[in-house]
Amino acid sequence: MAIVVALYLMIPHGVSAGEGQPAVQAEVEKMLRDDLDLEQVAVALAGSEVTLTGPVATFWDKNEAINRTLALDGVETVASELTIPGAEDDAGIAEEVVEAIRTYRFITIWDYVGGGVIDGVVTLNGTVTPDRDKSGDLFERVAKIPGVQDVQMRIVQQSASRRDNDLRRGIAARALRHPALSHYTLVADVPPFRIVVDQAVVTLVGAVRSGVESNILESITRQSFETREVVNLLQYPQ
Fold first, then answer.
1. For residue 193, what are the contacts with CB-CB under 8 A and spacing of at least 6?
2. pLDDT in tens, 31-61
3. How far is residue 107's CA from residue 215's CA, in Å, rounded to a whole number?
4. What mean pLDDT is predicted for residues 214-227?
5. What fold does the segment set 90-157 form as a domain?
6. Residue 187: its pLDDT value, please?
7. CA 89 to each of CA 93, 114, 119, 120, 136: distance values in angstroms, whole numbers, following the listed order
8. Poorest-confidence range of 17-21, 50-54, 231-235?
9. CB within 8 Å of 83: residues ≥ 6 apart
10. Which residue(s) pair with 51 in the sheet?
11. Half-sphere exposure of residue 118, counting CA atoms within 13 Å on the CB side?
12. Residue 132 DSSP SS3
């Protein structure tokens, strides 16, 4: 989710750019105070550019402050001088990111999300099903983690076609009923392997316990009539 950096507005005929500036600044200050509880953020207005200065608790607060300010009438651009407290190290942030993804209740066997952390900047990549705004949900969960300085979203949404939906359900059902794979249903709601389907191309990713399980899962996938291509990226102990 990229932060919009500029929003161009038409100035009504007969109204100068300087008119109404105190009202615009007051509206920004009220929004930050009442809607976001960001009382320590200072607001300065120069023409149609708003400068936000001060500390905020999380990147989510920073992102919301910028985007909501841009949405107000009379604001064209926002200059951010907002600061976020840093974390002790990236490892701690990474652990919380993993937990935020793991506990997201809409992650399924058909979604695959990973990422990394460098200097507090989190990059999320992967692919998700289109039944809801999973990318937006994950952005919010990660952006609210203390210490995160920015969130780069590289998650793509899979096809919503009926063929792909049928493939997802059919392959998963056959896989989890197979005697060699059914044990995964006993240990977790979502198994450690993923069945990613997009435009009838099925990518198997994640982890299984052995090469035998990998071969079984690939064979089940290839037997699906509508499958156009199978890519097996499963990992297992050698």
1. 109, 184, 204, 205, 206, 207, 208, 217, 234
2. 999 999 999 999 999 999 999 999 999 999 9
3. 25
4. 95
5. Histidine-containing Protein; Chain: A; (3.30.1340)
6. 83
7. 7, 19, 8, 8, 25
8. 17-21
9. 54, 55, 56
10. 44, 79
11. 4
12. coil
Overall fold of domain 21-83: Histidine-containing Protein; Chain: A; (3.30.1340)
Same fold for the pair 90-157 and 162-232: no
Domain boundaries, the chain: 21-83, 90-157, 162-232
Query: Does pTM surpass 0.90?
Result: no
User: Which amino acid does the sequence have at 218?
Assistant: E
Q: Is 3.20.20 the CATH classification of the domain at 162-232?
A: no
Six-digit token pair at 37?
Answer: 């509880």
**pLDDT at residue 214 is higher than 80:** yes
Sheet hosting strand 150-157, strand order edge to edge: 112-118, 121-128, 150-157
The string of pLDDT tens digits covering residues 168-206 is 999 999 999 999 999 999 988 899 999 999 999 999 999
Instruction: Quote the CA–CA distance of 236 and 186 in Å, as a whole number.
Output: 19
State the pLDDT at residue 19.
Answer: 54
